[in-house]
Amino acid sequence: MNWTAEILGQLEFYWETSLRPGLIGLGDDEFYWEPVEGCWSVRRLSDGTFAPDREWPEPVPPPVTTIGWRLGHIVVEVLEMRVDHHFGGRTMMLENAAWPGSADEAMRRLERAYAAWCAGVRALDAEDFAAPVGAAEPSEWAEFPFLTLALHVNREVVHHGAEIALMRDLYRSRPGVGRDAL
């Protein structure tokens, strides 16, 4: 089995046909739009950086999150941190991660992180896919083979990408806005 072709084939198909085309025209108003009270978003901190709203443990049910929060999650936690931990210097931590503060920044970083993840995965062989993830990930992933983690990354990108697509549909369809608003 050519795991690289299977893993990247799925992710690249979704990227090319759904996620990337679905983000065209994303602006800051939509990035920060809060459709309900109590949304989690990305907020500017006193030092000028941005960070996501979050609590641990996460409330049940978790709050609705903005496109900015969801896109930041894909960029920072799903792709950039994994690129750093598996194919880079292993210096990026959730505590020091800079979150995108605008739609344009999020899109630039998404494209870079996606390309870097794909390049890293493309360089792996069958032994790499079978090897345990180990210390590069939190303990819940340590014993799993890299193949399982790569499938999880695909799942996360597709899952949150679909949420973003729905949020864009809702934003475009909110009361008082024409159907061709975006």
Strand content: under 5%
Strand order of the largest sheet: 1-2
Largest sheet: 2 strands, antiparallel
Shape descriptor: globular
SS content category: mainly alpha
Give the low-pLDDT segments.
Answer: none
- Fraction in helix: 40-55%
The tally of beta strands, per DSSP, is: 2
The overall average pLDDT, rounded, is 94
SSE map:
Layout: H1 3-22, H2 28-31, E1 42-44, E2 50-52, H3 67-87, H4 103-122, H5 126-130, H6 146-172
Antiparallel strand pairs: 1-2
Helix pairs in contact: 1-6, 3-4, 3-6
Question: What is shown here, in short?
Answer:
The protein is mostly helical and 182 residues long. 53% of the residues lie in helices and 3% in strands. β1 and β2 (50-52) form a beta hairpin.
Description:
By secondary structure, this protein is mainly α. Helices cover 53% and strands 3% of the residues. The protein has six helices and two strands. It has helices spanning 3-22, 28-31, 67-87, 103-122, 126-130, 146-172; strands at residues 42-44, 50-52. The protein has a two-stranded antiparallel ribbon with strand order 1-2. Strand 1 and strand 2 (50-52) form a beta hairpin. The mean pLDDT is 94.
